[in-house]
Each structure stands twice: as C-alpha cells, then as structure tokens.
Specification:
The protein has a 5-stranded antiparallel β-sheet. Strands 7-9-10-12-11 form a 5-stranded mixed β-sheet. Strands 6-8 form a two-stranded antiparallel sheet. The protein has 3 domains: about 140 residues, 2-Layer Sandwich (Beta-Lactamase); about 90 residues, Helix Hairpins, CATH 1.10.287; about 150 residues, Histidine kinase-like ATPase, C-terminal domain (Heat Shock Protein 90, 2-Layer Sandwich). The two termini are about 45 Å apart. By secondary structure, the protein is of the alpha+beta class.
C-alpha cells in the first residue's frame, strides 16, 4: 500500500483543520447573528406593545368591522407584519391580517416570545398583557433569515480561497521544516559498507533535528566500530586458517600417495581431504568477502575476453556434470569483451556452474548463454532444477544462505557462493539477479558493462 509523503500529509491536515475551524466559526457567527437579530426584534416588539395598547380600541369585535385602522397601525413599524387583540378571558377581538387567525388558537396565547412557521415564512410572536387585554405582535423574520444566509454564503465562497492559501502556505512551511530531514535522509543513503566513515551534516540550530543528527552520527560511529571489528576478525581468522589447512591438505595428499593403507583407511583419508578442501574454500571465500567489505580487494582492471572465459567454463561444466548425466548447452558469440579481473570473473562462472550442477536433476540440462544487450554483456546460466521458493528469494544473495535449512553438506555448499558472486559483479559495475525460476527451470543472469563503454 502506497503511503503519502509527510509533506503532503501536513498540507492536507492543515487545510482540513483550517476548513473545520472556518466552518465552525461560520456556523457560530451565523447563530450569534441570528440570535442577536431575534433579540433585537423582541426588543422592538416590546417597545411597540405600549403604543399599540394605547391606540387599539377597547371595545369588542364590532369596533373593527369596516375599518382601515389596522393597516394604519402597522405603518412605519419596521418588521411588524400583523397583530391580534383580545381579552385575557379568552375572547379574540381581531387578527390582522386574517391569515394569522390559525396561529391565535387557542386564545389567549401564553405570554412571552416564540417563533412559528406560517405559509413557508418564519414569524416571531410577542404576547403581551395589560388591563385584561392580550396583544400579539407579529414580526417577519425574512430579513433576518436573508442576513444569516448571506453571511453563510459569504463564508462558503471564501472557504475555498482560504483553504488554497492555507494549503500553499502549509506546503511551503512543511517543505522548509522537513528540508533538514530530507538532507539527513540523503546523507544517510550515502553511508554504505564502503563509506562507513561518512557522517550526517550537523545543522547549526540546536533543536530536535540537531539532536536527531547527533544521535544518528553516534549510532553510525558504533556501527562502524562493530563492522570494522567483524571484518577484521573475519579476515584475520580466514588468513590464519589458510596456512594450517594448506599444510593439513598437503599431508593428507602425501599420505594418500605413499599408499600402505587398507580400503577403509583410504576412504577415511579421502573423506578428510574433501572436508579439508571444503574448509579451505570457505576460508578463501570469507577472506575475499572481508576484503570486499573493507574496500581492499586487489582487483586488476584490464580487458577480458568474456567469451573465452565462458567457453572454458563450459568445458569445466562438462566434467562436473558427467556424474549426473547432465547435458551442457552453450551459446557464446565471439569477442564479447569486458573490463575487469579475469580471475574474479572466472570465480563467478565456476560458482554459478557448481550451483547449477548441484541443484539439477539426474539427467537434466544446463545452459550457458552469452549475449550483448544495450551496452552490456548478459550471461545467463540456467538449469532444470526444482526452482527457488518465492518466500526465500529475498535472502538468496545473503551470506550463509542455503535452500536446505538442515545445512547438510551433501545437499548444498557453504552458502557464500552467491554472496561472493554479487560482490564481484558490483565491483565490476554490474549486477547479478535471479531470472526465471519455476518447477523445471531456474536461471541466474549476470550483467556487466562492455569494454568499449568503460573507456
């Protein structure tokens, strides 16, 4: 699942929080304006009630017949749109205009203020009592509603503009704030096993970023010391093992050549010789890997005829494959040349061929294919093996990795071959990767720059 960059998240969250804050502010402002206007109208209704009591006739409903007094009473009263008058005993004398009559039942209405709906209009009622009479003044809230709606519309129109400004500002601020983190990330990416002495640039400000930089640099110091100790130990141990292993191998070979042993003793010596040879190979591989780690590999760069190396390796493959009746197929164009160390490249070929034979089936096939492709020499070594499980491919080039977890020498090597092949390929500015791998076909692909592109 792809995640968003932190800068984009900060921009989004800033815009979201600002939007919510503006919506909340707009709603609160609109409510405040609405209630303020309602309070103002209630004040007007209360102020107009006293003149109305003085001007309204005190007699019953008959006094309102065939009179135009009601419109004159409302003239110049601002938001007032109607009224009703009656007795507190329960008699409604007159309601103007007539469509207000349904709102006046049951009469008299309770004293106070209320908001009602009539024919899709919102009205504010003020009910007042004096000397046995009840007066209801009615104000139209249309202007109040329009005022609140205009305010909300203004907020909604301003919201996108504000959000765009906030998003741009947040993006700029996030970029400035996260720039030291990006610098740390770039510097940390440049610190590899070959450049463990590199350190992160320490910012001038003594803030959280500065503290993080100091902590990371201290961690890199500890890692460098540990890595150097491990590399030195591996190199020293491998170097110290080479001499006694060489002596032991020579003495076993000399004993075998001298003869005088029965069959069981001779088999025992042959087994010891094989184990000694295996240990010697492991020591050599460990020493070479330690030199790669330390950046001290004695590599000679010179033009190498890769076609000849592959053809020689194909001959060696036939010898290795003969016990298992494995058929060797090769397709090697002439004069494919690279720049590098012939001894190390030969080691890559032999390691891959050894694996292709070891993990092949009885009577299977092995292919050695070389071609030119986009400025690179592409070597493919494939076999009819059982394939590499999907869940184990990520660790394929790790040191001491073996497909058979029981680590039986009869079913696999030391687990250093592919790791060494990768180091040699990288040292030649190339790479090695697993190509196709299924139930009856597995291939490894080595890509190296052609000599003419190396200058």
């Amino acid at each position: 699942m792809k995640t968003w960059p932190l800068r984009r998240k900060l921009t989004l969250w800033s815009a979201l929080v600002t939007g919510l804050a503006l919506l909340t502010l707009g709603a609160a402002t609109a409510l405040s304006l609405y209630f303020e206007q309602i309070e103002f109208i209630d004040h007007r209704l209360r102020a107009d009630a006293e003149p109305f009591f003085a001007d309204l006739p005190a007699s019953g409903p008959a006094s309102w017949e065939n009179t135009d007094r009601a419109p004159l009473l409302l003239k110049g009263t601002g938001p007032l749109r109607g009224f009703a008058i009656g007795t507190t005993a329960g008699r409604l004398d007159h309601a103007y205009p007539q469509n207000l009559s349904p709102l006046m039942r049951p009469w008299p209405l309770p004293k106070g203020y209320s908001t009602v709906n009539l024919e899709k209009r919102r009205l504010r009622l003020g009910v007042f009592e004096k000397e046995g009479r009840t007066l209801v003044l009615v104000a139209d809230l249309h202007e109040v509603n329009e005022m609140v709606m205009d305010l909300l519309i203004a907020f909604l129109f301003a919201l996108p503009v504000v959000l765009i400004v906030v998003a741009l500002g947040s993006s700029w601020f996030a970029r400035r704030a996260l720039q030291p983190v990006a610098n740390i990330a770039r510097a940390a990416e440049a610190i590899t096993a070959a450049r463990l002495d590199a350190r992160l640039p320490v910012p001038l400000s003594d803030d959280e970023i500065g503290r993080l930089t100091h902590v990371l640099n201290a961690m890199f110091d500890r890692l460098q010391r540990g890595f150097e100790q491990a590399t030195r130990f591996t190199a020293d141990a491998s170097h110290e093992l080479r001499t006694p292993l060489t002596i032991l191998r020579g003495e076993i070979e000399e004993a075998l050549h001298s003869g005088g042993f029965d069959g069981e003793q001779e088999r025992l010596l042959v087994g010891l010789l094989e184990q000694t040879s295996g240990l010697q190979k492991i020591a050599d591989n460990l020493l070479l890997l330690a030199r790669f780690d330390a950046g001290k590999t004695p590599m000679i760069r010179e033009p190498v005829d890769l076609s000849s190396l592959v053809n020689e390796a194909a001959e060696d493959a036939e010898l290795l494959a003969s016990p298992g009746a494995i058929a060797i197929h090769s397709d090697v164009p002439p004069d494919v040349r690279v720049c590098g160390d012939a001894h190390l490249l030969r080691r890559v070929l032999l390691n891959l061929i050894d694996n292709a034979v070891r993990y092949n089936r009885e009577g299977g096939e092995l292919w050695l294919l070389l071609r030119r492709e986009k400025g690179s020499a592409v070597l493919t070594i494939a076999n009819t093996g059982t394939g590499i499980p999907q869940d184990r491919r990520l660790d394929l080039f790790q040191r001491f990795f073996r497909l058979n977890v029981d680590r039986n020498r009869g079913t696999g090597g030391s687990g250093l071959g592919l790791s060494l092949c990768r180091e040699i390929a990288v040292a030649h500015d190339g790479r090695i990767e697993l190509g196709r791998s299924d139930n009856d076909h597995t291939e490894f692909v080595v890509r190296l720059p052609l000599e003419d592109l190396k200058g």
